[in-house]
Amino acid sequence: MKKRTKQCFTAVTIAAMVGGSIGAGVPAMAAKVTLPKTAKVAVGAKKVLKLKNNKRTKRTVKWKVSKGKKYVKIVKKSKKSCTVKGIKKGNATVQAVIGAKKYSCKVKVTVKAKNKVGESKRPSVSPAPEVSKRPSVSPEPEKTEIPVTASPEVTDEPGGIVTIVYDGTNSDEIKDIPGKVNVIVKDGVTEIGASAFEDCSGLASITLPDSVTKIGGDAFRCCGGLASITLPDSVTEIGQGAFYGCNGLMSIMLPESVTEIGFFAFCDCSNLESIKVDENNRVYDSRENCNAIIEKSSNKLVVGCKNTKVPSGVTSIGLDAFNGCRGLTSITLPESVTEIGDDAFKNSGLTSITISESVTKIGDEAFFYCSNLESIKVNENNKVYDSRENCNAIIEKSSNTLIAGCKNTKVPSGVTKIGRDAFFSCSGLTSITIPEGVTEIGDSAFSYCSALTSITIPESVKEIDYLAFSYCDNLTNITWKGNIYASVNDFMDAF
Q: What is this structure's pTM?
C-alpha cells in the first residue's frame, strides 16, 4: 500500500463536493461499489475479480469463497480485487465483504482442454523450455495387470465388508453404503467416470477389468481408505486429480499402456513412497530407480514422492510434482534442472533445499505452505538467483527481490523488495528485521505467519501491500520510525 498524504486526500474530497454542489446544485454522490455478477475460469487457470469504485474507502475488504470451496480458491487479495484459481469443474460463489455489505460473484469453473501434468499454468520469470508433443502410443494386445498398492491394513467394520458390482452408473449408490466396500467393475465398462468415487471414504479396494481404458478426472479423489487397485494394461489415460488426496496409497506402478496423465493426478498422496513405470512405456519412465514419473519427450519430472532422487538428465520439476508430499524432507537438484514449475513443492514436508547452478526459472508458489522449511541454499555460480550472506532465502539477482524465505531467513543488505508470498505460512518464523534499502513488501509476503511476534521495518519502505501481514494474529510488536505498534491494523493506519 502506498503511503498517502491525508491533507491532500481531504482537499481533493472537499473540492469534489464543492464542484458537485456548484455544478449540479446537489452534493456529489459516491459511485456505487460493484463486483461482476458472473465470471468464468478454467481448471488450473486464474481470474481477477475487480471491485469497481472502491479506490478511496478505508474500510477493510474481506474476500471469501462462500460456496463451492472445492471448485475455486483465492490466491491473491487486495482492497480492489482478488484472484481466484480454478481447482475442478463446478460452480462457486466468491464474496467481497465490506462492513455489513456483501458483493457476490458466481464463478463457473470449466475444464481446460488437453492440459497435462507438469504443464505450466502461469507466467514466470523467464520463458519455459520448449516441450515437444508426446508420441501417441497404441496399447499392446497382451494384457498385464500391474498393481497400485496401498497400506494393507484394513479394519473390518461390524457386519463385514460389502462387495458390490459397479456397472458404470451406480457410484452414488456405492457411496451411500456405510462401512467398508469392495468394488468389482463389470466387464465391458470402458471408463471410470469423472468424480465417480470422489469422497467415497468407505472404498477399500476396486477391481478393474481389461475393458477399462480411462480413469476419469477426480475419479478416486479423497478416497483415503483405498487399500488396493490394479491398473490393467488397457488403461491409456489417467485424468486430472484422479487419485488426489488418496493418502493411503504407498506405491504406484504405471503400466506400459498409459500415455496421458492429467495434472495433480497424484497430488496430496502423503504416504506415497514408491513409484515405478513399466520399462516398455513409451511416454514415461522412472529411470535410475528414481521413484518418480518422468516425461521422456521433455525430461520433465511430473510426479514425485518422499523417496524421489532426481536423476541426471531431468531438465524441469513440473507443475505440482511434489504437491502435498509431506514425507519429503530434503531434495538436491542436479545440474541438468533449469526450471522449477508452479506449485512444485507446495504443501510438502521440505526442511531443506539446494538450488543448483543451472536453475533459471522458479514458478509461482513453488514453495507455498512449506511450513517446515529451515534451510535454503543456492549454488554460488547460479546467474539468476542467490542466497547471499548465507541468508537462507532465494533472491532474484536482477531485481534484488527476495522470492522465497524460511524460518531461519536473515534478510541481507542489498535486497530492495520482499516478494509476493515470500514467507507465506512460514509458521516457524518468530521475528525478523528488514534492513534499510528495502522499499516494498509484496502481496501476502508474511500472510499466515502464525508464530511471528515482532518485525522491524525501515523508513526506506514506501509501499506495503494491503494483505502483507494478513492473519498474523500474534504480531504485536511492529517497530517503524522509532515507534512500536501493537497490531497490524494500528501500524497500517499509521503507515
A: 0.68
